[in-house]
Amino acid sequence: MSQLFSLQGRVAVVTGASRGLGLDFARTLAEAGATVVCVARTTAALEAAVEGLRAAGGAAAAVTLDITDEAAIAAAVPDIIARHGRIDVLVNNAGVIYRAPVLDTASDDWRRVLDTDLTAPFLLARAVGRHMLSRRYGRIVNIASVMGVVGRATVGGYVAAKHGLIGLTRTLAAELGPDVTVNCLSPGYIRTELNVALQQDRAFNTMLETRTASGRWGTPADLRGALLLLASDAGAYITGQSLVVDGGLTSILA
Ligand SMILES: NC(=O)c1ccc[n+]([C@@H]2O[C@H](COP(=O)([O-])OP(=O)(O)OC[C@H]3O[C@@H](n4cnc5c(N)ncnc54)[C@H](OP(=O)(O)O)[C@@H]3O)[C@@H](O)[C@H]2O)c1
């Protein structure tokens, strides 16, 4: 059974792997045997992350890249393929959020969220998808959110981007099959730098604890099994899906 979830010999690219969920995704894939190419903008944080992965016995490399830079992506993808031989798994994880009501949101703040959370996964899936199709193997895992399933005040751009990412995933699944699968992993609330404002909000904490079946915030470790399912041979017949891992948040009307 462990063979089904093994990534031995595979090459995985994880965006936003310098901290938060992306760093734990990188650890998970490395522990399953993959060589993990870690992408983010801040070189020092990225190198520290890669050092940590290597110290734990994993194979990892750092690529400093701003995923909103189309020309930089066009150069980076062939370079990664040349260095590592191929890309078997792409985890489109990097994301940003902007908190303000839609009526108070400047166009540039809207665009920054859409560029990072929706257009960048499109650019990367397009470049890497062509390569995966030519090799007749691939796993693309787009990190969406419960905000791709429901709406919420003050995060309009993020909600729009994550709903869009789930739609893009379904179309990519239709276009890249049968050998390349494309799915979303849609987490609930997990403590990271992205949601410090909510961690400090007592009313939000109470809501989360009473409204989820799990009764707590999620941890990065809660996402590991779902990621491995979608990134490995175990997920060969799963495509076009959004796997929601949220402790029951979006299934229960409290
Ligand atoms: N935390 C949650 O509760 C939660 C819930 C649902 C979904 N998610 C999703 O999970 C993903 C990761 O979130 P997180 O909580 O781990 O966030 P985080 O702690 O803020 O980490 C974000 C990562 O993305 C990188 N990044 C941001 N903009 C980038 C860009 N333009 N180019 C390259 N890298 C970039 C950051 O590094 P640099 O700043 O150095 O570039 C960092 O490594 C996001 O897509 C988020 O929407 C999170």
Short description:
The chain is α/β, with parallel strands linked by helices and 254 residues long. The protein contains 8 helices and 7 strands. It has helices at residues 20-31, 43-55, 70-84, 107-135, 156-176, 196-199, 202-211, 224-231, and strands at 11-15, 35-40, 59-64, 89-92, 138-143, 180-187, 242-245.
- What's the total count of β strands? 7
- C-alpha Rg (nearest Å): 17 Å
Stretches with pLDDT under 50, minimum 5 residues: none
Q: What's the shape?
A: globular
User: How do the SSEs run, as a string of H and E?
Assistant: EHEHEHEHEHEHHHE
Using the coordinates shown, work out and report the CATH topology.
Rossmann fold
Largest sheet, order of strands side by side? 3-2-1-4-5-6-7
- Structural class category: alpha/beta
Biggest sheet character: 7 strands, parallel
Quickly name the level 1 CATH class.
Alpha Beta
CATH superfamily: NAD(P)-binding Rossmann-like Domain
Straight-line N-to-C gap: 38 Å
Helix content: 40-55%
Mean pLDDT: 98
What compounds sit in this structure?
NADP nicotinamide-adenine-dinucleotide phosphate
Number of structural units classed as domains: 1
CATH architecture grouping: 3-Layer(aba) Sandwich
Number of helices: 8
* Percent of sequence in beta strands: 15-25%
InterPro entries: KR_dom, NAD(P)-bd_dom_sf, Sc_DH/Rdtase_CS, SDR_fam
Domain Ketoreductase: 10-193
Family: Belongs to the short-chain dehydrogenases/reductases (SDR) family.
Protein name: SDR family oxidoreductase
